[in-house]
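Saturday, quiet lab. Running sequence design on the structure tokens for the scaffold JK sent over.
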């Protein structure tokens, strides 16, 4: 029997036989950072972050610091979605946020103290959990604290993740007045049976009304998140969701593969294994969605992401200016990232760090006026080279040897001789081309770009270590 193939327009991803996809469908990270967070160590703590912030402050005083990106994590949600893999706290007690916001204020003051005044912020993102668990006045309070501590640029991207069940069109208006100009709706799937199976019921009509309102309120970019591979999804039901979301024309669509890892994520234990679609159906959902989005005017940005042609991400992709950070793809050059809140991950200079993952630990550190950092990593020269290669693959699907050589003073063919050899099966399968002066992911290779990037990950070269990550498809 011949392979099923997925055929979409030539621009990417292309045509890939199902057997090839299965062959390279290995567990692997999504590379929002390199090294990945599982490599962070406890030996890197609050004092290291303070040192990195002080170094940034010094270079800022000398006029050298690029603008900052700021992420605020709001962990609370009123009810649990069974597919959830986020760090969240499920509660209906809204009064719990008061203590959290006090702690957040202390954290902002500590970071501001280390960085000094006047740090320009070009990107501010509220994520969770559910940021809209907070009342409007509470969200305004957090934004106010940040505005007093930092200099938020007039043209800064201010984005917020929104659970459609927690907002009304009027609330979207208030968020816009507070300053948010980008909004991301967690949609996942419109099918009523799927919504029940994942314990997240939000009818199509309400999402339609919210997206229309967001557009009338002139949000500069509206994103919708979808997930394929959820319980009770079929290729046919997911195709309906894909058509429905396309009809609403969000500027961006992120379509993630559900990773069923119940041993790691407790809520997922409530998902009935027998209701999960098999690998063949997942593949058909992915291929069908890609074909549909490309066919109705969306451009493929990279792993899981689509955008309308006039959206900033699509323009950045065309111009080779795409970047990747903890929120996924971004138009902003690699900024230092101040991460606030429980479990948040930041990046300052050549280092990453993560805050305490539980509220008691987080509160405890801040009560003692200590940054709540529990682990991190200082990047070595080798990490920096590999990060550059991996991010070039994930963003552009292409690594120019010369640009890596100039930035990192290495000879690609020598430095990565072993890795270039390891690419041979991918080259032979037509997923990667090794040119005289570049590595190019082919149109079909975009399906498995994580498998290509993985070759350059020094830490994850054994299958054993990879198992903790989700599979690619
Ligand atoms: S998926 Fe989002 S809204 Fe649902 S429980 Fe997890 S963090 Fe909360």
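Result came back. Writing it out in full:
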């Amino acid at each position: 029997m011949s392979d099923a193939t997925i055929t979409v327009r030539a621009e990417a991803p292309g045509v890939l036989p199902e057997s090839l996809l299965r062959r390279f469908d290995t567990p692997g990270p999504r590379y929002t950072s390199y090294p990945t967070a599982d490599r962070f160590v406890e030996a890197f703590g609050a004092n290291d972050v303070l040192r990195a912030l002080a170094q940034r402050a010094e270079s800022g005083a000398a006029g050298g610091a690029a603008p900052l990106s700021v992420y605020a994590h709001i962990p609370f949600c009123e009810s649990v979605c069974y597919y959830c893999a986020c760090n969240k706290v499920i509660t209906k007690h809204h009064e719990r946020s008061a203590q959290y916001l006090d702690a957040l204020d202390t954290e902002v003051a500590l970071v501001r103290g280390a960085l000094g005044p006047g740090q320009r912020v070009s990107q501010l993102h509220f994520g969770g959990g559910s940021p809209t668990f907070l009342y409007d006045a509470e969200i305004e309070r957090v934004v106010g604290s940040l505005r007093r501590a930092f200099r938020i640029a007039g043209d800064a991207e201010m984005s917020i993740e929104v659970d459609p069940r927690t907002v009304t069109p009027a609330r979207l208006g208030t968020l816009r007045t507070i300053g948010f100009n980008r909004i991301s709706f967690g949609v996942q799937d419109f099918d009523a049976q799927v919504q029940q199976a994942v314990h997240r019921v939000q009818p199509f009509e309400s999402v339609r009304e919210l997206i229309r309102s967001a557009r009338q309120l002139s949000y500069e970019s509206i994103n919708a998140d979808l997930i394929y591979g959820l319980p009770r999804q079929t290729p046919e039901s997911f195709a309906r969701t894909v058509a429905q979301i396309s009809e609403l024309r969000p500027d961006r669509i992120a379509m993630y593969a559900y990773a069923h890892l119940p041993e790691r994520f407790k809520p997922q234990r409530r998902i009935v294994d027998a209701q999960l679609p098999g690998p063949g159906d997942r593949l058909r959902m992915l291929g069908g969605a890609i074909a549909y989005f490309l066919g109705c005017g969306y451009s493929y940005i990279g792993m899981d992401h689509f955008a309308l042609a006039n959206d900033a991400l699509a323009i950045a992709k065309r111009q080779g200016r795409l970047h990747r950070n903890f929120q996924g793809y971004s138009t902003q050059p690699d900024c230092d990232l101040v991460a606030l809140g429980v479990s948040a991950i930041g990046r300052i200079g050549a280092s990453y760090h993560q805050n305490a993952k539980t509220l008691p630990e987080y509160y405890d550190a801040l009560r003692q006026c200590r940054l709540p950092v529990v682990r991190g990593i200082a990047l070595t020269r080798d990490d920096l080279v590999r990060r550059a290669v991996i991010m070039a693959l994930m963003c552009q699907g292409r690594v120019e040897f010369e640009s890596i050589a100039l930035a990192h003073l290495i000879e690609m063919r020598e430095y990565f001789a072993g890795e270039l050899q390891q690419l041979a099966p991918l080259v032979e399968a037509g997923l990667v081309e090794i040119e005289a002066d570049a590595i190019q992911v082919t149109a079909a290779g975009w399906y498995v770009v994580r498998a290509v990037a993985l070759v350059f990950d020094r830490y994850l070269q054994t299958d054993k270590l990879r198992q903790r990550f989700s599979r690619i498809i």
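Notes for JK: Residues 1-11 have pLDDT under 50 and may be disordered. Residues 5-29+380-466 form a domain with the Arc Repressor Mutant, subunit A fold (CATH 1.10.10.920). Ask whether to fix the surface positions before the next round.
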